[in-house]
Amino acid sequence: MEFNSKKSVTMTVGPEFEEKCLKINGTELPSVDSFTYLGLSLSNKSSSIDYFDEKFKKVEKAFYSLYGLGCKPRHLSPNSIGFLYKQYCQSIFRYGLECLYLPDYKLHQYNTKQNNMIKQAIGLSRFALSTPLLNVL
With the C-alpha atoms ordered 47, 50, 51, 56, is the resulting torsion angle positive or negative? Predict the structure, then answer.
């Protein structure tokens, strides 16, 4: 396995660990508080919840950007809106989901927000039942 010291860093996680100098092949790796790996921001101060909150904001922004394509009430069929949401917006949120733990309560919150966005786009009240709607879509 080849090692590139220019692309590598160390990060100490948790208050109980003391920072130590790590050398590989005689090269000292710099110590950082945070870095981004495959789009995932890792930090010793933030949590995965912060990461997913930011991702869901991107989902909302992407979905509302589809309004220009007619993804609004009575402009596009509900099936088309559901298809565009699934293909374009959900993929933003799902990327990296399998690598991190997401508590059930947060997953429920995201599902509720997602349901409300879709209901709004097809002209339903946010109090309409979601299960039959999602089964149809």
Answer: positive
* Residues 32 and 7 sit within 8 Å (Cβ to Cβ): no
What would the DSSP string read from start to end of 102-131?
--HHHHHHHHHHHHHHHHHHHT--TTS-HH
* CA angle centred on 79, ends 76 and 85, rounded to 5°: 85
Evaluate whether 34 touches 46 at the Cβ level (below 8 Å).
Answer: yes
Q: Find tokens 């950082």 and name the residue.
A: 32
CB-based contacts of 51: which residues, under 8 Å, 6+ apart? 40, 41, 96, 100
Segment 55-68 shows an average pLDDT of 88
The DSSP call for residue 44 is: S
Provide mean pLDDT across the span 43-58: 79
Query: What is the widest separation between alpha-carbon atoms in the chain?
Result: 65
Query: What stretch of H or E contains 23?
Result: strand 23-24
Where do the structural domains in the chain lie, given as residue ranges? Answer: 5-43, 48-136
Quote the radius of gyration of the chain (alpha carbons, Å): 21
> Is pTM beyond 0.70 here?
no
